[in-house]
């Protein structure tokens, strides 16, 4: 299939990109194109102008600033997946990225593009939420920082304005154990459900936990009932099973052509259990 007609621009600077977006309310940012272009082919998106920011050098940096990992929005997913800096600073990101599409998709897709796309079944959205990350965005009024917890508002919809560009992702680097798991029909398919876990253990007791589920509703979301079942307990088989059950019981997933609610709840239960089992062996 072919997309509807559109204009294309590749600005030389971030400022030029913002000006192009501000001048056309139907313009869209293009980074890797692995999500936007298929939506255009299916007529689910009809931008009048694509503003290509994928080659802007200021969006392609990967660095660490003290206790923060900074990932430029245009950093390719495969680059982040294989980077020693990411693996050492935030291993959860590397684990999540291995589940994103196929190798070819990750070679073109970008970290910022996945977050800006806000797919409720996106692995990176879940991992960024579990890691308490922030994104930096730039618009006509300058730069601002948005917690990822406030970024996703509905399926494929964020809190960003149409004339803003997501420029970097900032991930706190904190000592913690992590786990990531999902259930999908085939490798590379969208997950029926999945879970990302970040757990802190002090003297064998869980002192802090962030569990995030994805593929179970309109956005990725925290799983407070499962977190409560773990907090203050030793990290062992019994509380892990209780947390998995609590996550599934408190979830009301959609009924669609891919899976019914019971199947998604079962997939979430399995994902939470597997992610936490990774944590116990971390």
TrEMBL record:
PANTHER family named in the record: XANTHINE DEHYDROGENASE SUBUNIT C-RELATED
Occurrences of domain FAD-binding PCMH-type (ranges): 1-176
SMART domains: CO_deh_flav_C
Bias (Low complexity) ranges: 241-250
InterPro entries: CO_DH_flav_C, CO_DH_flav_C_dom_sf, Diverse_Substr_Oxidored, FAD-bd_PCMH, FAD-bd_PCMH-like_sf, FAD-bd_PCMH_sub1, FAD-bd_PCMH_sub2, Mopterin_DH_FAD-bd
Signal peptide (UniProt feature, chain positions): none
Annotated GO MF terms: anaerobic carbon-monoxide dehydrogenase activity; FAD binding
The UniProt record lists the keyword Oxidoreductase: yes
The name this protein goes by in its record: Carbon-monoxide dehydrogenase medium subunit
EC number: 1.2.7.4
Keyword tRNA-binding in record: no
Keyword terms of this UniProt record: FAD, Flavoprotein, Oxidoreductase
Annotated region described as Disordered, given as residue ranges: 230-263
One Pfam short name: CO_deh_flav_C
């Amino acid at each position: 299939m072919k997309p509807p007609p559109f204009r294309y621009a590749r600005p030389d600077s971030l400022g030029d990109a913002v000006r192009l977006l501000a001048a056309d309310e139907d313009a869209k940012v293009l980074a890797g194109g692995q999500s936007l272009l298929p939506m255009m082919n299916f007529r689910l998106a009809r931008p009048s102008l694509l503003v290509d920011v994928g080659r802007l050098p200021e969006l392609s940096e990967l660095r660490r600033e003290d206790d923060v990992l900074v990932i430029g929005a245009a950093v390719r997913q495969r680059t982040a997946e294989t980077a020693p800096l990411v693996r050492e600073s935030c291993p959860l990101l590397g684990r999540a990225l291995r589940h994103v599409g196929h190798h070819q998709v990750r070679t073109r897709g970008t970290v910022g593009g996945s977050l800006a796309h806000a797919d409720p079944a996106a692995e990176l959205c879940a991992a960024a939420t579990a890691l308490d990350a922030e994104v930096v965005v730039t618009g006509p009024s300058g730069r601002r920082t948005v917690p990822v917890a406030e970024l996703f508002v509905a399926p494929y919809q964020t809190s960003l304005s149409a004339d803003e560009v997501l420029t970097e992702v900032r991930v706190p680097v904190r000592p913690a154990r992590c786990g990531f798991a999902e259930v999908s029909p085939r490798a590379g398919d969208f997950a029926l459900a999945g879970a990302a876990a970040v757990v802190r253990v002090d003297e064998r007791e869980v002192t802090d936990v962030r569990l995030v589920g994805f593929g179970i509703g309109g956005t990725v979301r925290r799983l407070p009932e499962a977190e409560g079942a773990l907090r203050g307990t030793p990290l062992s088989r019994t509380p892990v099973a209780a947390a998995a059950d609590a996550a599934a019981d408190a979830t009301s997933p959609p009924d669609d052509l891919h899976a019914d609610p019971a199947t998604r709840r079962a997939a979430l239960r399995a994902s939470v259990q597997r992610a936490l089992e990774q944590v116990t062996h971390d």
